[in-house]
Design a protein that fits this description.
Helix content: 25-40%
Radius of gyration: 37 Å
Number of strands: 9
Strand content: 25-35%
CATH class of the largest domain: Mainly Beta
Order of helices and strands: HHEEEEEEEEE
Shape: rod-shaped
Oligomer: single chain
Number of helices: 2
CATH topology of the largest domain: Immunoglobulin-like
Number of domains: 2
Amino acid sequence: MKKFSFKHNIDEKKLDKTLKFSIMDSIYKRKYKNFYFKRFAYGLSLILLIAFTVLIGYNLGTNKNENRVTLVFKLKKPMAENVKLVGDFNNWNKSGINLEKTNGYWKTEIKLEEGSYRYFFIVDGQIVLDPSNPTINDPFGDKLSLVNVYQKRKENRLWKNI
């Protein structure tokens, strides 16, 4: 019988059993610890993936219309036959946005995000600037009307006196 420097004397059979069980326990714990960690990591990544997908979908779908302001573009041309609106908001498409005629005024409503927009009217084939808003020079030397769109912080200056 061997003696160890522990508090109690341990016989070899007990020591063999104890070592055997401690080795098996450590192998078992390591094996299942990795297994449970992997399950936890997969579950957490799945939850995060779903959460980000929902958030991105929410940001792409709902906030676009909430950030837009409805502007009314009006032009007083009672003798005109056809009036269109062309600008940054329709990528300068010459076919333009058609305005409706009511009581000598041509008008249309457009939803725009915050920012500055350059534009002009096409009245019976001729370019006409908006007299109610300031004008600026574009890089090609032409004059354009300018409207600034703000989100409820400031008032939008666009034909208030009508």
